[in-house]
Design a protein that fits this description.
Helix content is 12%, strand content 42%. It is built from six helices and ten strands. An eight-stranded antiparallel beta barrel has the order 1-2-3-4-5-8-9-10. α4 runs antiparallel to α5.
Length: 280
């Protein structure tokens, strides 16, 4: 933070608060192979934030976001994924902090430098909870141990955490509509440290083993091949591949945001409605 300072550091500081609406997109084992079909997984997202304008080049933000993630094997063109027949929906709450670098410099006061692209990076935590619908009832998947979590014969398979850390990277643009009002748009990736956003990460555990500990619903949701075929349950031997264990899931989020600058504005006479030029 010391490296961000300049002789005008104190003079340029102010707070900014706002909200945003947008969309989120899950990427993982239940994503379609086709890029176009992946857009069918888009879900709504919302944001509220406060920024500290450190100087024209840098902003520090605190963000609270709500979004949904969705994946479905039935959206895939891959025959094997269609047959696997897994799906999930998850409500996600994010709490994170980011540092923004305004490439051109951003000074909305007196509209001195009212436009800039920016790059942001940060870290935070998020809460996810994958669910699926089975026989007209929604079930939370994590407590069911669909990949053998909670079975004594598989002690290495621990329940995944619903609270997880994440890293944020992204780009955006911002425009000062007036000295108090800003419009911005950004797009970023959320890198996570779990492969269980979708409740699928490694291999099947035979349904009877899961049913013995977690019950018939857990067994049915651990292997949905028979449900997809319209036949009776299909029992695969433990260790059969269920998902790719060599990669982690991630998700993308984009927002359009409106914000207000919380400072006392004293526009120069005759310049209140003018748009200044970006300062390079």
């Amino acid at each position: 933070m010391l490296a961000l300072g300049s002789f005008s550091f104190l003079q340029a500081q102010y707070l900014e608060a706002g909200f945003g609406v947008g969309a989120s997109l899950y990427e993982g084992d239940l994503s379609p192979d086709s890029p176009l079909k992946r857009f069918q997984l888009l879900r709504p997202a919302g944001s509220a934030f406060v920024k500290w304008h450190l100087n024209p080049k840098f902003d520090w933000a605190l963000n609270v976001n709500y979004l949904q993630l969705y994946g479905d094997d039935k959206k895939s063109d891959n025959a094997g994924r269609k047959e696997r027949n897994l799906d999930f929906t998850s409500n996600v709450f994010e709490f994170n902090t980011t540092l923004e670098w305004n490439i051109l410099g951003f000074e909305p006061e007196r509209l001195y430098s009212p436009f800039s692209p920016y790059i942001f990076a940060g870290a935070g935590i998020f809460h996810h909870n994958p669910k699926t619908k089975y026989q007209d009832t929604w079930y939370e998947l994590q407590p069911l141990g669909t990949e053998g979590q909670g079975l004594s014969q598989y002690p290495e398979r621990e329940y995944y955490k619903l609270w997880q850390p994440n890293l944020l990277l992204g780009i955006g643009i911002k425009w000062a509509l007036t000295e108090r009002l800003n419009l911005s748009s950004d797009f970023g990736v959320r890198l996570v440290f779990t492969d269980y956003l979708d409740d699928a990460s490694s291999s099947y555990i035979a349904s009877p083993e899961i049913a013995e500990v977690h019950g018939p619903i857990a067994a049915a949701l651990s292997n949905r091949i028979g449900e997809g075929r319209g036949t009776g349950p299909v029992i695969l031997p433990s260790g059969s591949l269920r998902a790719s264990p060599n990669s982690t899931d991630y998700y993308l989020v984009g927002f359009v945001k409106l914000s207000w600058n919380l400072y006392n504005v004293e526009p120069l006479a005759g310049r209140k409605n003018q748009m200044g030029c970006p300062r390079f």
